[in-house]
Amino acid sequence: MNTTLTTKRAVGYLRVSTPGQTGNNHSSLETQESRYKEYCQRNDLLPLCHFVDIVSGRRDDRKEYRRMVEYAIQGNTDVIVVQYLDRFGRNPREILQRYWELQDAGVSVVATDEDINEELILLIKAGIAGAESRRTSERVRANMSRAVEKGVHAARAPFGLRRIYHGKEVSWEKDPVEASAVKEMYRLSVEENRGYKAIADLLNEAGHHARSGRPFSSFTIQRVLSNEAMMGDLTYGKKPKKGNPQQELVRVKAFFPAIFNETEWTTLQKRLEIRRESSRGRAHSSEYLLSGIARCGYCGGPMTGKAAASYKGRQYRNYWCSRATRSRALCEHYNGHSTTKLESAVLEYLSQFSDPEIVKQHIESADQAELTARETELKDIELALADLDSQFTQNLGFMRRGVLNEQEFVKANNLAREQVSALQTQKGSLAEWVDKQKERDQTTERVPGMVKTFIEDFQAMEPRVRKSHLQTILKSAHVRRNSIELEFRT
Q1: Residue where a domain terminates, one of 145, 169, 199
Q2: Nearest residue to 148 (alpha-carbon basis) of 21, 251, 43
């Protein structure tokens, strides 16, 4: 009688959050690899390879982790070896899902330094891993927040400012040279409607330079102009990191000497927002006043200005629907208009809105019923999300009591997770739309004065400045053959 012995195949998964991480369950990669090989030798497993990630377990973009799971599910291994279960991640749901998914595919998950055979231990460890990660993050954020609240700025001095030491005490003042460059950034952005790269190029040509004598880049300009230190505020927690919960914003007003006053800061941020919304290209610098503003009233696509063939020394310029010029399948209407006539018509129509009462009537003519419907839809989504969260907790309890098995639990919560993801996306879009609609009252107060100033100063403005001012008033002008519909910027 012949007996065939089959040696099980094994792969290892090694992970550290940072290259130098060691100690207190933060084993080095070398230690984890050694444990993997020793385990294979003790248990007669055939070590095939190991997958390595140097990234936090909370991140969902762990390339080697995803590659390892795919490799295992395709039947290339029988066992996955880790030193601790928390190498799989910090999210209990993620650990449970992957563990059962691999188990269903016939792949075992084993830990060299702990017992994870019991499902109860698996659940406890998953919960502890997530709780430990949250506690660590909370401690770091709390320490940073307390430092900011005490007026301590441990990072580099913001561009345009410098520290002055008085023994152990520190005060702040504007750096004359750097602050001058910051003011020029503001002027080029707000008054000349320049983008980040153009501002960097112009500053470099004028002899300005960034820290350590380096030339300015578009990234440097963006970072400086979006830093609230320019208006004197010290902030922490403004941008939550991927995989982390929303951080609480800590702000210390008037911590630094302000380079911009509050009005200048608000004007600058609106200008930067307008540029972010606009399509790439020459929308901000072209000679066509309505480029980036005019939209085809039939398909909603952008209208672009183009010069036609000249006749007897005169060149004809027109606006056309950009989609129709590419393909009639995208839009059936070329929607051509003489540049001079369309721009004059828009300016004439716009001039009516220097009257506050007309602006109010225009704003209020928007469909109030749609606002009410969307607010109701938003409330329904919030209730649905709360219900799904309750269902997960309930299903987890059912599984612990044996009412649901592992496969049923995973199936139910996979569906719930997909629903949550879709609802969260929908909720974000709805909330943003509702907030913008509620800002219309501010538009009613602001628009008339801006329109009046723009019309009065129009002839004296440079083309780029005209476009900049018009963009702060109008978000779009929807043009049809015989009508124009203006959308004001809130």
Answers
A1: 145
A2: 251
Of 78, 74, 64, 6, residue with least CA distance to 32: 64
pTM over 0.70, yes/no? no
How many Cβ atoms from other residues are within 10 Å of residue 69's Cβ?
20
3-state secondary structure of 244: coil
Answer with the residue of higher pLDDT: 89 or 131: 89
Domain boundaries, position 392 = 285-297+338-490
End-to-end CA gap in the chain:
85
CA distances from 344 to 231, 302, 307, 339, 341 (A): 39, 19, 18, 8, 5
Under a CB-based contact definition with an 8 Å cutoff, are residues 473 and 196 in contact? Answer: no
Distance, in Å, from the CA atom of 169 to the CA atom of 480, rounded to the nearest integer, reads 65
What 3-state DSSP class applies to 477? strand
Asked if residue 226 and residue 115 are part of one domain, the reply reads no
271 in any annotated domain: yes
Task: Clarify whether residues 353 and 464 are in a common domain.
Answer: yes
Pairwise CA distance, residues 283 & 36, whole Å: 58
Same-domain check for residues 52 and 133:
yes
Helix ranges, 158-241 (H): 176-186, 196-205, 218-225
136 and 174 in a common domain: no
Number of domains in the chain: 3
User: What 3-state class would DSSP assign to 107?
Assistant: coil
- The answer on 293 and 268 residing in a single domain is no
CA dihedral 387, 390, 394, 397 (to 10 degrees): 170
Whether 181 and 266 share a structural domain? yes
pLDDT beyond 50 at 242:
no
Identify whether 323 is part of a domain: no
The first and second tokens of residue 295, run together, are 């939209």
The b-or-e profile of 323-354 (16+ CB within 10 A means b, else e) is bbbeeeeebebebbbebeebbebbbeebeebb
Among 47-51, 52-56, 406-410, 458-462, the range scoring the smallest mean pLDDT is 406-410
Tell whether 51 and 179 lie within a shared domain: no
* Residues 311-334, mean pLDDT to the nearest whole number: 86
